[in-house]
Design a protein that fits this description.
Layout: E1 17-18, E2 35-36, E3 47-49, E4 51-57, E5 63-71, E6 74-81, E7 84-89, E8 98-104, E9 115-117, E10 122-127, E11 142-147, E12 155-161, E13 167-171, E14 176-180, E15 197-201, E16 209-210, E17 227-232, E18 237-242, E19 245-250, E20 254-257, E21 262-265, E22 272-279, E23 289-293, E24 303-304, E25 307-314, E26 327-331, E27 350-357, E28 377-380, E29 383-387, E30 393-397, E31 405-411, E32 417-423, E33 426-431, E34 435-441
Parallel strand pairs: 1-2, 22-27
Antiparallel strand pairs: 3-31, 4-34, 5-6, 6-7, 7-8, 9-10, 10-11, 11-12, 13-14, 14-15, 15-16, 17-18, 18-19, 19-22, 20-21, 23-25, 24-25, 25-26, 26-27, 28-29, 29-30, 30-31, 32-33, 33-34
Length: 443
Amino acid sequence: MRRWWIRSGLAIATAAATLVATGLPAAACEDDKPVTEAKHSVGDPGAVKGVRPVGSVPDAQGAISANFLSYGKRDVMVVSGQFGLKVYDLTDNPAKPRAIGELSLPGLWETEDTEVDAKRKLVFLSRDPRAFKGNTHTGESGIYVVDVAHPEKPEILSYVKVPAGHTTSCVDDCRYLWTGGPAKADDQPADWGGRPIWVTDVRNPRAPKVHPDPIELARNDGKTDYVHDVQVDKMGVAWVSGAGGVRGYWTSGLHRDPVQNRYRLASALKPVPYAGGGVSETAAPSKFLHNSFHPVGSRDDGAWRGHDLVYATEESFLPGCAGDGVLTISSLDGSYQGEGWRSTPEKPFRMRSIGTWSVAGQEGSDPVSDDCSAHYFDLRGHVLVQSFYAQGTRFLDVSDPSNPTQIAYFRPADAASWAPYWHDGYVYVADNKRGIDILKLGV
């Protein structure tokens, strides 16, 4: 089952990235920025409240993302990171994952939001141009298609070069992949702010076919810019996040295209716009939305006081902590007629902000660390769990989206929390320094 959860190639000179263990920038979407080690209080023991750590997987140090696969009664976790891919069996004790398989690709970058095809037992790993000591200017990017039909022996079925490679995401039931980011290569158009999306046909996983023409252009008030991540909701709408906001697309079926004002068949290559657009600058000043989530089937199909909501993370790094990226919650109302596709600098369209939440100054935070940007999150019911890098993993009650409230937190002194995942009553945290932390909400 795909997880429904929820980083910037922005050329903002004031942004500061953090440094992970190997020297690669933890602010993986940041390019050409000075990097500094996250500052922690001397002797800081960390902080934990309202949550119980029940297990850990330290041999997954360098972890960036995780996902889960079911093999009948067998429950398996796949973890991607700077090591490649590691596979763990959770069946006997989900708090004590047992290592069973590994695909060694030391130096791989970045594999954020690693996708799986639950039916065909495939894992799709994105190769960022900065992998294996490359760079965004000239480095090679692409996709590894990994067969985990036998989880003890993960095997690369194919590798294909793609002009983008920061993240790669399934659309249309994993028949196709949408791959975007990071900052543009030297041989790409000078007026692009970052890499858009390239579509790869993986119906034959041994012979992926990359379509030569990119999609999701002109997303930032008419400018082609950095696409960071794609999340597909339970309706099948693919939500594309990046510079300029969040826009949703149908990738299959017959739908009305509000931009062309006609009904047409949607496909991965020719998606039909659904809703979305820019997020208010008062909520996300950087305009860079890292990832997003549309809670269909939750709280009356995502509605709250008449508003259809989209949750998104702003990833942004500024000196200090107070100006770093936040969790944003916006209303999709007023965006269903293609407004987000007609937005220009002269006549910008922005979704109405419902609420935001920042880790700065919150209980449990390290006041000395300036590594505070929001990152991936996962939502179950009214409890949202989110990573904030050195400020750890935070649990928020979002039953009132206009007033998200922290209810628990887990911040080890050495935290580098990148992505949390609800699974079978536990939260598995991909921590780039610590490996996998396994948490249980409540004490």
